[in-house]
Every structure is written in structure tokens, then in C-alpha cells.
Amino acid sequence: MIDKSSPLPIYYQLEELIKKQIETGELEPGDALPSEREYSETYQISRMTVRQAVNQLVQNGMLYRQQGKGTFVAERKIEKQLLGLTSFTEDMQGRGVQTSSDVVEFNIVLANAYIAGQMQLKKKDPVYEIKRIRLAENTPMAYEITYLPATLLNGLTKEAAAQSIYRYIEQHLNSPIGQAKQTIEASAADDVEAEYLQIAKGSPILLIERNTRLKDGTPVELAKSVYRADRYKFKVDISR
Ligand code: 16G
């Protein structure tokens, strides 16, 4: 309930109340939020205050607006384990979610200095450059640009890349993927990322770069993954 004598701002109290309704399932993903007028009448608060609370929740991704239709409850964010070297396919299958990929580009290019340095190749060595939109239940979740050493992984096809690149690597080389170094940065979607992820340009994204090796230390992948920040959060168990 809203307590007008509380030192907590009213918009904040309403924000917490809506959050609770989402957490308890009283409001479910896809549900339309009651109108500003309904909230303002129910709680005897101004529509401005309601708007302020709703804006906060739109900003943090718990609600989204559809022009001309109203405000709706967003899907819950996917919690991705930070530890564990899994592929997108494994992540989704582990959740029982149907997954697919759109391969928007599939090329062999010459390694630039950065790629060569990261993958222990020589500058201008051939590498696959694969750009994929990764979908869960037909919703774009991530956009990935992957570089793979072309000599080591020769024979990779666009069809195989539309499935699982990790499966191809492990089967083709008959050797397990072993470890990776990974960085995560906050960023804003550029034109291309926004189009592929079906979000507005400038929306928050999580930029993940992964440099992956086989168990024996051979570098096999340099990948840049762009995840929708409104769909993902990362989870890690820590202790001391
Ligand atoms: C994940 C990896 C990416 C890898 C891909 C392979 C992150 C941040 N990135 O998306 O580096 O290339 O899985 O997926 O987790 P696949 O085997 O399904 O093609």
C-alpha cells in the first residue's frame, strides 16, 4: 500500500509495489499495466507521480511501452551464469528454449593485427568472420561476430555455423574446448546492433568479448557478443 506519511517518495513506493506485483506473478510478462488514471484513482496520487514510477520501471527494463497500446510487463531477464564455458546453443537448450541463428555474414578475411595477436596467428592469416543473430523462440537475444582460424577449422560451412560453432570445433578437431578469457562492458547499440536486436538505437547492451582455447591451449575463437541489457543479467556465486 502507499503510505503518504512515509518519508519514502510516493513514486518510489508505487514503483516498489509494481515490482512486487511482478515478482509475485500478480502481474505476468505480457500483461498490460493498469492505466495512469486507474493507479491515480486507486491510490489517490497524482498522474505525474504514477508516470514517474512507471518511467523508472521502463528504464530498468521491467516494463516496456508500445506506442498507442500502453505499457506492458516485460519478460523476466535471463540469468546467465558467469562461470562455465557454455555455448549459446547449450545455454538455451539447458533452459528448454528453442534456439536458432540467422547467419547474416559468412566470410573468410585476413587477420588484422588485433585478431592475429589475440589468436596467436600471423597478421593476414585467413580467419572466418561470421556474423550471427542468435534467437530464442524467434526473439533476437544476441548478435555475435566470431573469428575462427580458417586453416585449423577448414571446411566450416554457413549451415554448420547456423547450428553450433562449438559443436563444430569439438567434432572437427576431436578435442574439447578448455578455457576462455572474457570481458564484459556496458555499451549502447549502434545502428546495426539495434536493427538486428530489434531495439532502439542507443539502447543499453552488454558487450562480451571471449577469447577461447582448446584444452591443449590452441586458440580457436575470438568472439564479440552483444547481448540485450533488457533481457540479460549475469550471475556468479562468490564466497570467502
Ligand atoms: C556463446 C559465446 C560465444 C560462442 C557461442 C557459441 C558468450 C558470451 N559467448 O554465445 O563466444 O561463439 O556461444 O555458440 O557466451 P554456438 O556453439 O551455439 O554456435
UniProtKB/TrEMBL annotation:
Keyword set includes Lipid biosynthesis: no
A GO biological process of this protein is: negative regulation of DNA-templated transcription
Domain annotation HTH gntR-type: ranges: 8-76
Among its keywords, does the record have Transcription? yes
- Record keywords, A-Z: DNA-binding, Transcription, Transcription regulation
- GO function terms (MF aspect): DNA binding; DNA-binding transcription factor activity
One Pfam match, given by its short name, reads GntR
- The name under which this protein is listed is GntR family transcriptional regulator
Please report the organism this UniProt entry assigns to the protein: Mesobacillus zeae
